[in-house]
Amino acid sequence: MGKIFAIVNQNGGVGKTTTTSYLAKAFTAKQKKVLIIDLDPLSSLSSNYDFSSLGTKSLTECMEGRATLNECIFAVEENQLFMALGGKCLIGFEIAAIYSPNREKVLSTLLSSIKGNYDYILIDTPSSLGLLSMNALTAADEVIIPLRCDVRIFEGMAELLRTINDVNNTLNPQLTIAGFLVTHVNRELRSTPVNLKEIHTCYGNKVFQTLIPNNEDLLVYYKQFATELSA
């Protein structure tokens, strides 16, 4: 049975999409079969790949019941990496489903039938805690929280942790926090050791040992992170 990770933080620019993309590459380098769910209407993740020759089915159509999940999944790398594309129409899903029963469980229900086909499913989420992020949290086994190593470290974090706790208590009792991934680490800044100390003071052993730098070969670091996640 595969494991589902939701990469969540309502702040933008913290590395959610980068983490999803590079972690997927790191897992496939370990010969793992990976499915990426692009749940962000901005679809920044999709821009990393060429889908010009593919069909038009999107995750939006699937979540609205107009297509099957398999119709929304495309192979990025044969037998290794797959993706379900969302797109800007996901905003329409948030609006249309707001009064629907079990609206937070749409993605969970869809993934339950295919979870066993993959080693890992990674869900990239929008920079908000709306219905799409709630679907990601309800579907996930664990949450990875990217934290940007700067003065905005803890911005919105209380709200995010409260939301995760609420989902755990009401919608997904199996949900746990895998940990906090520190990103955009610039060791040349004098503030970096102070920021790292504050993060470890607040979150202790929930902080991953892997630190993601600003401008280096990120895949090397995400391979290290993948090993840490799999340990």
Describe the structure.
- There is one protein chain.
- It contains 8 helices and 8 strands.
- Strand 7, helix 7 and strand 8 form a beta-alpha-beta unit.
- It is of the alpha/beta class and 231 residues long.
Average pLDDT over all residues: 91
The tally of helices reads 8
Biggest sheet, strands in spatial order? 3-4-2-5-1-6-7-8
Number of spatially distinct domains: 1
Task: Assign the structural class, choosing from mainly alpha, mainly beta, alpha/beta, alpha+beta, or little secondary structure.
Answer: alpha/beta
Mass-distribution shape: globular
State Rg: 17 Å
Largest beta-sheet characterization = 8 strands, mixed
CATH architectural category: 3-Layer(aba) Sandwich
- H-E string: EHEHEEHHEHEHEHEH
Strand content: 15-25%
Number of strands: 8
Outline the low-pLDDT stretches.
none
As for the CATH topology, it is Rossmann fold
Within CATH, the superfamily carries the name P-loop containing nucleotide triphosphate hydrolases
CATH class: Alpha Beta
**Helical proportion?**
25-40%
How far the N terminus sits from the C terminus, by CA atoms, comes to 17 Å
Short description, anyone?
Helix content is 35%, strand content 21%. With 231 residues, the protein is of the alpha/beta class.
